[in-house]
Write a structure and sequence with these properties.
Shape: globular
Strand order of the largest sheet: 1-3-2-4-5-6-8-9-7
Radius of gyration: 19 Å
Order of helices and strands: HHEEHHEHEHHEHEHHHEHEE
Low-confidence stretches: 14-22, 321-332
Length: 332
């Protein structure tokens, strides 16, 4: 199914449904119930734009880092700059590179993949500030708003292609597992998990074909979070808490650093960690079912399936600019 979606996206196919028509009525009823149960948590996320790793001085120009995507990329649900995934990743990248990192976050809460064109345009508008590396987190709203998956993957692949053409490395955190949001009940829970994983696998295929890398974010709303909902979900039981964002950032950071040749690990496959070289579609399917799995393109049609060792994130201080200690509304 993931391969069919990705092929339809690449060749302009129509919307390939992920659910049978017989399930639509039941799903709609469950969605309405979930919407009434999930509430709050819609305050603007903190603006984390600024310079990180200032202790490393200005001997070299800062790495330019762009964040794109939806509320997850923006950091909705937390109240301090240092708790957002952008700030966590920028600080971690600065610590590994021993170099300052300039973060620009253009993610928009509520965004679907068709907003990526606008976000990419914002990042590339100034030729002197084009990013060296970007992280995209997108897909959950595509599922909940029933965007045809072929359209979703097409928009994402186009964004990755434009960023790669502009010289940026790209890491995509694929669609999280929506089947573990606490207020979502069966059978919607099962259907949401199935749809989320199929979209995540299709996203992986589309991103790899454009020269990007992916990291499965299934655990962002997946089994690890379901086991600790009070600790890893925010007050609205939908967006992650500070601890939840830290868990997701720890999964993405190794791949982010590896994309720039900074991660102190070899790309040699480690069989003890179930790493392998597989056809892209099989690698995408395997990654979608195991959070934290990286997929990197090799010689077509093969891809590397890796489970990089995670390291504890460094302590994050709020960026040099702006310097508010707590949340400030995101700039439009």
């Amino acid at each position: 199914m993931a391969r069919r979606i990705a092929t339809g996206a690449a060749y302009g196919g129509g919307g390939i449904g992920l659910l049978g028509a017989a399930a639509v009525g039941l799903v709609i009823a469950e969605v309405q119930l979930a919407k009434r149960t999930v509430g709050g948590g819609h305050a603007d996320p903190p603006c984390a734009d600024g310079l990180y790793g200032t202790i490393f001085g200005r001997a070299r120009p800062p790495l330019r880092f762009g964040m794109l995507g939806d509320s997850t990329a923006a950091g909705q649900g937390v109240h301090r700059v240092r708790q957002t995934p952008g700030a966590l990743l920028a600080s971690g990248l600065a610590a590994v590179a021993e170099r300052q990192v300039e973060l620009r976050n253009v993610a928009l809460p509520g965004a679907m993949s068709n907003d990526l064109d606008r976000q990419v345009m914002l990042l590339l508008a100034d030729p002197t500030r084009r990013p060296d590396v970007c992280v995209i987190m997108i897909g959950a709203n595509d599922v909940t708003h029933r965007m045809p998956p072929t359209q979703s993957v097409r928009h994402l692949a186009a964004a990755v292609r434009r960023l790669r053409t502009a010289g940026a490395e790209v890491v995509v955190g694929t669609c999280p597992d929506l089947g573990t949001i606490e207020p979502v009940y069966q059978p919607l829970r099962w259907l949401a998990r199935r749809v989320s994983r199929q979209l995540a696998a299709a996203q992986t295929i589309g991103v790899i074909e454009q020269g990007g890398r992916t990291v499965s974010l299934g655990d962002l709303l997946g089994p690890e979070f379901a086991a600790n909902p009070r600790e890893l979900f925010g007050p609205d039981n939908y967006h992650p808490s500070a601890e939840g964002y830290a868990t997701a950032a720890m999964a993405v950071l190794p791949t982010l650093c590896a994309s720039l040749g900074l991660w102190p690990e070899t790309d040699r496959l480690d069989a003890s960690r179930d790493e392998d070289m597989l056809p892209v579609a099989k690698a995408a399917s395997a990654a979608a079912s195991e959070a934290g799995t990286e997929v990197t393109g090799a010689r077509a049609p093969w891809a590397l399936l890796k489970h990089r060792r995670r390291r504890r994130l460094p302590a994050v201080t709020d960026p040099a600019a702006p310097a508010e200690p707590a949340a400030s509304p995101r700039r439009p």
